[in-house]
């Protein structure tokens, strides 16, 4: 019952922090919104997703800390509304925005180890690309080329042009570093 209220507070705090409002104003608004959300918290059953994956993805670039906090709260419910591989992938994306590559490596690896990758090629491509970026960052250029090649093949098989372009960028940087 308390999770939706916490989610509202977290989202609002992150939103208003971006506009550099005074701390007391943010707190007052968060409390007001939390009070307004109490009926919603009572009406929400445990099977209803608190925050959708699409909403989290849209927040990841500008508010990676809020996304990470929300994902941790979703995991703590004991009945996450997102599949574990999706949570790991979103964490990898958020840490990538923060340029915390050790965590990107950890969560991209977790995502790639999931049995669900075979049935989710878009997510598989995304995880491979993030993994390749960490390999590049840590100097494993041969591993990066291998991961990029696998991601490129998968992106081409699925017709995922944005992913293909993203992988090509990583591959180009890697080939320049190799020469």
What spatial form do the alpha-carbon principal axes imply? globular
| Computed CA radius of gyration, to the nearest angstrom | 19 Å
| Mean pLDDT figure | 80
Largest sheet: none
Question: How many DSSP-defined strands?
Answer: 0
Structure description:
α1 runs antiparallel to α2 (about 25-45), α5 (about 85-95) runs antiparallel to α6 and α5 (about 85-95) packs parallel to α7. It is built from 9 helices and no strands. The radius of gyration is 19 Å and the shape is globular. About 35% of the residues are buried. Mean pLDDT is about 80; it is low at about 1-5 and about 20-50. The termini are far apart. The chain is mainly α and about 180 residues long. The protein has helices at about 5-20, 25-45, 55-60, 65-75, 85-95, 100-110, 120-135, 140-160, 160-179.
Entry summary:
The protein has 179 residues and is an all-alpha fold.
Question: Which secondary structure elements does this structure contain, and how are they paired or packed?
Answer:
Elements lengths: L2 H16 L4 H21 L9 H7 L4 H13 L7 H14 L3 H12 L8 H17 L3 H18 L2 H18 L1
Features:
globular, disordered N terminus, 179 residues, mainly alpha, 9 helices
């Amino acid at each position: 019952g308390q999770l939706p209220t916490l989610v509202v507070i977290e989202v609002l705090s992150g939103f208003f922090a971006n506009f550099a409002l005074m701390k007391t104003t943010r707190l007052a608004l968060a409390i007001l919104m939390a009070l307004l959300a109490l009926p919603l918290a009572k009406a929400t059953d445990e099977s209803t997703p608190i925050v959708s994956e699409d909403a989290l993805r849209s927040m990841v670039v500008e508010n990676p800390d809020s996304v990470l906090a929300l994902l941790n709260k979703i995991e703590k419910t004991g009945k996450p509304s997102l599949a574990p591989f999706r949570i790991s992938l979103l964490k990898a994306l958020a840490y990538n925005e923060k340029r915390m590559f050790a965590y990107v490596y950890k969560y991209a690896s977790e995502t790639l180890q999931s049995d669900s990758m075979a049935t989710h090629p878009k997510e598989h491509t995304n995880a491979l690309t993030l993994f390749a970026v960490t390999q590049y960052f840590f100097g494993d250029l041969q591993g990066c080329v291998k991961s990029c090649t696998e991601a490129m093949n998968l992106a081409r098989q699925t017709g995922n042009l944005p992913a293909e372009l993203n992988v090509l960028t990583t591959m180009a940087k890697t080939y320049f570093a190799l020469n």
